[in-house]
Amino acid sequence: MVKNAFYSTTIIAACLALGKFIAAYLGGLPASLYGMLIFTSVLHFQLVNPKKIAASISWIIQHMGVCFVPAGVGIINHYQLIKDHGFALVAIVFISTFTLLSFVGLTYQHLVINKDNCNN
User: Fold this and answer.
1) What is the mean pLDDT of residues 36-51?
2) What pLDDT is attached to residue 98?
3) Is the pLDDT higher at 71 or at 22?
4) What is the DSSP letter of 45?
5) All residues at 6 or more sequence positions from 33 whose CB lies less than 8 Å from its CB, including other chains
6) Domain boundaries, the chain
7) Nearest 5°: phi and psi at 27?
8) CA–CA separation, 42 vs 19, rounded Å?
């Protein structure tokens, strides 16, 4: 079991390190996302033994909630601020999202219509 945990940790760390290397030179995406893409590719093409990694991945998924504790603590620490300005925060999120989606949609329509008119 310890041997498989070391194997899993090494594979995951290597994928993340390679992701950090790619992100440093290419940019565009976060290093962790590059690492996940590499890890998925490694598993898909069976470059590593998925059976050795399965137990460690199951353990990580079972304890994933620990990763979200800091966000929960942040909400609790700023509860009074959220309580005082919660409606304004929610309104700002909805209005800004609606505005952005509308702008992108109208811009896309404008570009597609202009492109179609130019081709005719």
Assistant:
1) 88
2) 96
3) 22
4) T
5) 19
6) 1-62, 70-120
7) 70, -160
8) 13
